[in-house]
Amino acid sequence: MISDLTKLTLNRVPPAPSLQAFNAADELALQRLQQYSNAEGPWLLVNDAFGALATALSVKNLDWWNDSAMGREALDHNLAAHKAAAPRIIESPTELRDQYRLVILQAPKSLTLFEWQLSEIGKRLTPDGQCWVLGMVKHLSRGHQGVMQQYFSSVDPGLAVKKARCVTLADPVPKQAPISAQEYSIDGLTLVALPGCFSEAKPDPGALAFLAEFDQLPSVDRLVDLGCGNGVLALSYLRRHPTSQAILIDESLQATASAAASAERNGYPVQIHHANGLTRLGLSAIPLILCNPPFHQSTTLTTDIAHSLFKQAASALSAEGEFWVVGNRHLNYHKTLKRWFTRVTAVSQHPKFVVFRCTVPKP
Ligand SMILES: C[S@@+](CC[C@H](N)C(=O)[O-])C[C@H]1O[C@@H](n2cnc3c(N)ncnc32)[C@H](O)[C@@H]1O
Questions:
Q1: Which end of the chain is least crowded, N or C, by CB within 10 Å?
Q2: How far is the CA of 91 from the centre of ligand 1 (A)?
Q3: For residue 308, which atom of ligand 1 is closest to its CA?
Q4: Using alpha carbons only, what angle is made at residue 91 by residues 312 and 123, rounded to the nearest 5 degrees?
Q5: pLDDT digits (tens, 9 = 90+) for 101-158
Q6: What is the pTM of this model?
Q7: Helices (H), 152-216
C-alpha cells in the first residue's frame, strides 16, 4: 500500500494537468490506514473519483463503486500506469457483497446520493465494520452530518487535517425506509430522477429555456441527447416526433437509470448508453444532437467537458446535421462553438440562457 499519493502520477478524465486527481481527505484516509488493525478485506471504495485510492491500495478483495464513466476511465488509466491490481467493479447495489469490514466513501455533493449510498452500506457492514466518510471540511455540510447521524449511531468526526476530514461511522441504525426516486411533470411528460441524477427535484432552468425553443427543431428520424440526465430533452423531442429513434448518453449511472425509468414511464422506446461522451460509441452521420452540457465535475467548475462534447458532436454529425445546445449566457459558448461549426446562430431571447443552432461541422 502506498501512503503518499504525491508519489504516484495520477491523471484525471478529462485530463487537467493543473488539477490534482485526489484530495487531502484521500491522503488522510491513507495515513489512517497505516495504523488500522482491522486490515482484512473485503473493503469497498465509493466515489473514488479518479481511482486514486484504488491505485494506492491495490489490495485483494477490494470493490469499487462509482457512478461516473469518466471516473471509471481514469481508474483504468491510473491502474495500468502503475501496474496496480484492478478492484472488482460495482455498478449497482445488487452487486455489493453482503459484508464489508471497511468502506471508504468520498462524500458526494448530492445529499440524496449520499443518503442512498449510506443506506446501502449500512446494511452491509460486519458487526465490527466501519465506514469512513471523506471530504473537504467546506463540502461536508450540516445536511451531510444529518444524514450520517440518521444512518449510524456512532459518528466520530475526527480531527480536521489540511482542511479535510475522515469521519468514522459505525453501528448502523437498522430498518430505514427505502429511498425512492423523485418524479415531476413537465412538457406533458413525467420525469423520474434517482438519487444523484442531475435536476433531481425540479427541471433545470437551462433545460426549460431550451424546451421553449423545441418547436423550431428539425424533424429527423434519429437524434442523440448528449448528457441526457433524466432524459428530459430526448423525451420532449419524442413527444413532438414520436416516430424518431432517440439515443441517450450520460456518463452518470444514476442519470442513465433515471432516463430509462422516464422513457418507460412515458412509453417511449429509446437506446441508452452509459459513456463518457460519444468517442467510444462509434456513432456517425447523426442528423440532430441536443445538449445541455455540464459546467462542473463534482465540486469543480469547468467548461472543459462541455468543450470536448462540442468537438465530439461536430464529428458525429452528418454534413447537413444540426447541433442544438443551451448554455448560460456568461459562459460565452458562441466562441468555442465557432471552432467546430461554420454556422452558429443564437435562436433564443432568454435573459440568462442562450440556445444555439450549430450547422456545417468543420472537418
Ligand atoms: C446540465 S446536465 C443536463 C441534463 C439533462 N439533459 C437536462 O437538460 O436536464 C449535464 C449532464 O451531462 C452529463 N455528463 C457530464 N459529463 C458527461 C460526459 N463526458 N459524457 C456524457 N454525459 C456527461 C451529466 O451527468 C449530466 O447529467
A1: C
A2: 18
A3: 19
A4: 150
A5: 999 999 999 999 999 999 999 999 999 999 999 999 999 999 999 999 999 999 999 9
A6: 0.96
A7: 205-211
Q: C-alpha cell of 361? A: 461541422
Nearest C-alpha to atom 6 of ligand 1 is from which residue?
A: 228
Ligand 1, CB cutoff 6 Å, lining residues:
70, 198-199, 204, 207, 227-229, 232-233, 249-252, 255, 276-277, 292, 294, 305
Ligand 1 centroid to 292 CA: how many Å? 7
Q: What does the pLDDT look like over 62-92, one tens digit per residue?
A: 999 999 999 999 999 999 999 999 999 999 9
Looking at the structure, give the CATH architecture of the domain made up of residues 5-172: 3-Layer(aba) Sandwich (3.40)
* CATH annotation of 182-361: 3.40.50.150
Q: Is residue 307 helix, strand or coil?
A: helix
Cα–Cα distance for residue pair 152/148, rounded to 1 Å: 6
Peptide bond preceding 205: is omega within 30 degrees of 0, i.e. cis?
no
**What secondary structure letter does DSSP report for 107?**
P
Cell of 50: 479518479
Which residue CA neighbors atom 25 of ligand 1 most closely?
252
Question: Where in the chain is CATH 3.40.50.150?
Answer: 5-172, 182-361
